[in-house]
């Protein structure tokens, strides 16, 4: 009862393609370069900016320059203007010295958590209704990716949790949710000799509200390495068991830090679409023009920097925008939030589900071409795209 998870990690440029594989990691920064100007992305008029916002909310396709504003929008909860709430893993240093209302007031902490629970439940209900394609729950210890049925080759709702730690597993035990934790290596087959492959093994987790067990899977390398804080500790939850996971997370006392700079702050919810209690935010974009030496002469090189949580749909929609605006030629360096790279692990062997997805998720707010890409099986393993290039309207990429 084991499933094989393929892992890839290469610095070799891929072959040319009309499409690039879905990348489920979150990018923290994109640096796009081109021989043509990005003037269309600079200094939008007030009307153009407003049109971009409203068309994002209406999920209406529009043309440049409003479309750049539309593609930079994301939704977040909670929101404190003076605190960076993404990324959360490893963010203590950036939060030191920045006070927040949750730090020393337990009553206020409970108020924030109650609101967070309502927002989290709202997002899950949107996902189940196929009005939200996916969303992230970012805690100070781990990240959860919830995906709607039809995405990543799965015909049911899925959730991936990474990294899992001893602290998280202890929290499950303390809450009375962990019935059994069983880990083992391969089954002795020839494939077991391949160090680049990971085995998935089952773990049962019981929710205190529902007696049903969550069908989860732990990734573990065959040599029995310690899993804590490693991508190999990723957990997969499927189907209606994701609702049990929702209840577990809402009731998990270790979900929020009890001390340190992040004490009392609820996990960050990131979504492509609006949800109850969400704040509309935009990625920061700026263009820079430089001159670079090319053999015996200088040439103009233009760059566009985008900073913030760049989610999978955004990477794809921006690539379509750049394809049109830069006449099919550009290069983008992608800076990945490393703990989320493992979300590219394959979870399904099902065949292409694109047509089904476009029909079922047509009202989720994403471009049909982006939906088609996100519907495909994950092929990147625990790697993520580091470099995305387009030449003559064909993509190549490096992991």
UniProtKB/TrEMBL annotation:
InterPro entries: Donson. Residues 173-192 are annotated as: Disordered. Signal peptide: none annotated. It is found in: Nucleus. One of its GO terms (cellular component) is replisome. Keywords: Developmental protein, Nucleus. Transmembrane segments: none annotated. Residues 173-182 have a biased composition (Basic and acidic residues). One of its GO terms (biological process) is mitotic DNA replication checkpoint signaling. PANTHER family: DOWNSTREAM NEIGHBOR OF SON (PTHR12972), PROTEIN DOWNSTREAM NEIGHBOR OF SON (PTHR12972:SF0). Belongs to the DONSON family. This is DNA replication fork stabilization factor DONSON. It comes from Naja naja (Indian cobra). The lineage of its organism: Eukaryota, Metazoa, Chordata, Craniata, Vertebrata.
């Amino acid at each position: 009862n084991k499933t094989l998870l393929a892992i890839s990690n290469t610095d070799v440029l891929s072959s040319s393609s009309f499409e690039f594989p879905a990348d489920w990691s979150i990018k923290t920064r994109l640096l796009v370069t081109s021989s043509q100007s990005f003037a269309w992305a600079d200094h939008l008029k007030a009307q153009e900016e407003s049109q971009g916002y409203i068309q994002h909310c209406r999920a209406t396709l529009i043309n440049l320059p409003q479309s750049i504003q539309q593609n930079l929008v994301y939704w977040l909860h909670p929101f404190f203007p003076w605190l960076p709430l993404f990324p959360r893993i490893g963010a203590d240093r950036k939060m030191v010295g920045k006070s927040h209302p949750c730090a020393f007031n337990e009553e206020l902490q409970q108020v924030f958590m109650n609101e967070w629970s309502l927002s989290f439940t709202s997002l899950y209900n949107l996902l189940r209704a196929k009005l939200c394609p996916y969303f992230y729950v970012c805690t100070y210890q781990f990240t959860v990716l919830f995906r709607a049925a039809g995405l990543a080759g799965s015909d049911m709702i899925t959730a991936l949790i990474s990294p899992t730690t001893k602290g998280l597993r202890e929290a499950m035990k303390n809450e009375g949710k962990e019935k059994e934790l069983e880990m083992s290596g391969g089954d002795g087959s020839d494939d077991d000799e391949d160090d680049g492959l990971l085995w998935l093994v089952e773990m049962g987790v019981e929710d205190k509200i529902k007696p049903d067990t969550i069908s989860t899977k732990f990734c573990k390398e065959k040599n029995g390495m310690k899993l804590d804080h490693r991508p190999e500790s990723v957990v997969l939850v499927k189907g209606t068991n994701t609702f049990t996971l929702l209840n577990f997370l809402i009731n998990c006392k270790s979900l929020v830090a009890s001390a340190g700079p992040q004490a009392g702050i609820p996990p960050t919810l990131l979504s492509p679409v609006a949800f109850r209690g969400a704040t509309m935010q935009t990625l920061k974009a700026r263009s820079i023009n430089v001159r670079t030496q090319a053999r015996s002469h200088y040439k103009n090189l233009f760059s566009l920097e985008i900073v913030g949580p760049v989610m999978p749909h955004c990477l794809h929609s921006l690539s379509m925008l750049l394809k049109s605006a830069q006449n099919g030629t550009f290069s983008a360096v992608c800076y990945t939030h490393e703990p989320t790279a493992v979300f590219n692990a394959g979870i399904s062997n099902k065949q292409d589900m694109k047509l089904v997805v476009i029909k079922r998720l047509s009202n989720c707010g994403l471009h049909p071409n982006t939906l088609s890409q996100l519907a495909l099986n994950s092929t990147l393993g625990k790697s993520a795209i580091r470099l995305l290039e387009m030449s003559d309207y064909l993509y190549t990429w490096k992991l």
